Amino acid sequence: MQFPESKQPKPPQTPGPQVLRYLAYAFIGLLIGLVAQEFRWRGSIKVPQGQLEQAEKELQGNDYPSAVTLFEKLADKNNPLAQYWVAHMTELGLGVPRDPSKAIELYKKAAEQDVSPAELRLGEIYLNGNLVPPDFAQAKSYLEKAAYHGDSRAAMLLGQMYRAGIGMPADQTEAYAWSEVANIEGNVFAKRERDASFHDLSEADQNSAIARAHEILKGIKTEQPSTKRPKPN
User: Nearest-CA neighbor of 182 among 147, 213, 212, 156?
Assistant: First the structure.
């Protein structure tokens, strides 16, 4: 088909080099933005929980270097369970150099977010004085926090402190009450402590001790720790 010269179709114009560079940069920027958005979505929704579970599996499987790497990434983001596990591994030297001071610091960060195993461990550390000099006031404080978050071992240790008068005057009523709480919560070692304290009380004090145990149990039911999960090993 022939067109008059004035109506001949014009060939498409090729974009100049500057236009091509602009389009290329725009496309690359769009691609980077989409990839970044995908990673943000995965990070905010899927990755943290999966990382925590994976780290716990690595710890259970004794792959300490992999576990501590994953836990440390989450601990840096203020994940309290990861902070607890990094503290645990640092205290024992599992996959990282043993560093009691750093472990205590991380236990405290986890305890500030109501991780009851961290509260219990701090109570034990300050009670036993094996990593730091004994500090019975701090031991009692952390053990009470853990006990009111439902930790039966913490309750038992409080009972022992009251019975022996460790860092405080001996108080057999409180000793019985906390030991009974630990017993009710399933601590098999607490029954002997409870019975020993009970026999040292008068009949009136026995009634007071039973009432005190019920009072503590009511307080425990109202305390709901935000996280109470650790225990793979």
Answer: 156
Contact (CB, 8 A) for 198 and 176: yes
The DSSP 8-state label assigned to residue 12 in this structure reads P
CATH number assigned to the domain with residue range 114-233, chosen from the 4 options 2.170.120.40, 1.25.40.10, 3.90.550.10, 1.10.3210.10: 1.25.40.10
* Structure token pair of residue 35: 């990839």
- pTM beyond 0.85: the answer is no
Interval 28-69: pLDDT, tens = 443 334 333 333 333 333 345 688 999 999 999 999 999 999
Q: In what helix (H) or strand (E) does residue 139 lie, and over which residues does it extend? A: helix 136-148
Residues whose CB is less than 8 angstroms from the CB of residue 102 and which lie 6 or more positions away in sequence, other chains included: 87, 90
Q: Summarize pLDDT for 84-111 with one digit per residue, the tens.
A: 999 999 999 999 999 999 999 999 999 9
Q: Count of CB atoms within 10 A of residue 191's CB?
A: 14
How confident is the model at residue 91, as a pLDDT? 98
Enumerate the β-bridge partners of residue 227. 115
Query: Could you tell me the residue ranges of all domains in the chain?
Result: 47-113, 114-233
47-113 folds as: 1.25.40
- Has residue 17 got a pLDDT over 80? no
Same fold, 47-113 and 114-233: yes
Give CA–CA dist 103/94, Å, rounded. Answer: 12
